[in-house]
Amino acid sequence: MQDLKNKLVFKPNRENPEESEKMNKWLVKFKEEREFDGIMKNTMITDVVRLKIFLDFVEKRLEKEPDNMRNSDFIQFFNYLNTERKLSKSTQNRYFNLLKVFYRTMRLSNFLDFSDESIERKRFSRSEVKHYDAISEAELNEVIQSIVDGKSKTQIRDALVIRLLWDTGCRLSEVINLKYEDCDFKEGIFKLKNTKGKVERTVTCSKDTLDVLNQYKQYNPNSKPENYIFQTIEGKIIRKNWISKVFRDHVKKLKEKGIIARNRRLVTHSLRHGRAVDFLDKGVPIDIVKEYLGHASLETTLFYSHSRERKDKMLKDLKKLL
């Protein structure tokens, strides 16, 4: 059992619119200007994705060009983002900021009236409310260590669920609903059937996590194809609330010890956020991250490319150069 505890802790160390000829004309010019401005590659990628949404709407819905848009046209576009694409206020705010950049870069003035009016009427918030933080690998390691050092009878199972959440970037419900028939215990491949979007997808885990999983499942009372991987002592499916409580309690304990900062807002979903940020930091293409995490819209994934954690890391990297 101690061997399993040691292995659980980490070792140091919506579719994108098709480009039309008209759209491409504006995209090429915008990218040329922004590249000359020295804009970072990741920023360029996210800006272009959103700009395509705007240009597609202008061309197909309004049958216009960006340079002859009027106030009423911009209002139609943002109503479209709100009612049809169902984007959050914070995401709409990003579109607003992007269009300010786009029209300034293109040296066009027809967005100015809408921009001034929107600021005056406070249509778009200057700040974004964030409900919880993305966990870092260092913080995660402290949480797992705290769990395996505890006295709970389910400490190995609980820590393993949390580590698998990190590896896979899954939602908690997706992991606890895994059954034997969904898992390839040799390759570490998992088929997720009970997903939020009702679309089956495949995820994987690290070799270390897989080793622990293969040892852990030997202690399960039931191991038929239809049985759940993570079971109670009675062999039943575990409750989401239990894992959330375990995670929350150990984060609280680590805050009291001063190991995790008290202002960090960490919940189990922070593991999914942290994994998304980690993937993007390691250079995984944003469309791959979208598919792996099972986001219905690229807009959700784009959120992480502008997360505070990524900005903080960038500032630390810049500080080293000073």
- The name CATH uses for the topology of the largest domain is hpI Integrase, Chain A
- Shape annotation: elongated
State which percent range the strand residues make up: under 5%
How far is the N terminus from the C terminus?
Answer: 48 Å
Number of strands: 3
Q: Can you say what the CATH homologous superfamily of the largest domain is?
A: Intergrase catalytic core
Number of helices: 15
Mean pLDDT, all residues: 86
| Poorly predicted segments | none
User: What CATH architecture of the largest domain would you give?
Assistant: Orthogonal Bundle
Strand order of the largest sheet: 1-2-3
Largest sheet: 3 strands, antiparallel
CA gyration radius, whole angstroms:
23 Å
CATH class division of the largest domain? Mainly Alpha
* Helix content class: 55-70%
Q: Helices and strands: which structural class?
A: mainly alpha
Domain module tally:
2
What does it look like?
It comes from Methanococcus maripaludis. This is Integrase/recombinase XerD. There is one protein chain. The protein is mainly alpha-helical and 322 residues long. It has helices at residues 2-8, 21-36, 41-60, 71-83, 89-105, 112-120, 137-148, 155-168, 172-176, 207-216, 240-256, 269-281, 286-293, 298-305, 308-321; strands spanning 183-184, 189-192, 201-204. The protein folds into 2 domains: 21-120, DNA polymerase, domain 1 (Orthogonal Bundle); 132-314, Orthogonal Bundle (hpI Integrase, Chain A), CATH 1.10.443. It is 57% helix and 3% strand. Strands 1-2-3 form a 3-stranded antiparallel beta sheet. A hairpin with a 4-residue loop joins β1 and β2 (189-192). α8 (155-168) packs across α12. The N and C termini lie far apart (48 Å). The mean pLDDT is 86.
